[in-house]
């Protein structure tokens, strides 16, 4: 079993890289830095795979250029992973804080999955904020591995299978939602997401360099997103549809 770890880090975010590196080195986790795609300052028209019409139809707003940059960073990690012979990929964002027994927990989880090849899955969220519409699979130490039928929205820490990575490259090339929303919609619909609770990764409580702060140069995020009047309704519709799919998997 071969596992590789990518740490997404924006060029120039040296303090974040140092902090994340220290954590991973202390946990004895070997990793490679993955240069984040910097979408800040670009016009939406510069992103060839972004569909603004679809984004506004689904979300009731345009994506921020920084959100597209975050999406492309995760997509790039998967592309690079599939060029290797590794079985699993761990993707971490640099504004994270890992638990002290991170490596032990990861090794236990992947050993279990390696021994249970009949368990079909694409992606594991190891940074879930909440556990909803879930079904426990097994307990590994103090951590529960579960079917995350309503896939958690936070993409701070993820583990990919090769099958999941291959499928993501196929179905996720066209961009019309932020990457964490894409994962929730995709995996709640197909039921192939897993989760770990308590989470192995938590946010450090700082703004994302890739996504930027909520307000820049006096412009609110709401204004930057250019929300339509239907934004709130579309959000509720999307969330309830994801929950509907998740509930179907849970009771089946």
TrEMBL record:
Residues 5-182 form the Glycosyl transferase family domain. Pfam families: Glyco_transf_25. GO terms for molecular function: transferase activity. Keywords: Transferase. It comes from the Bacteria. InterPro entries: Glyco_trans_25. This is Glycosyl transferase.
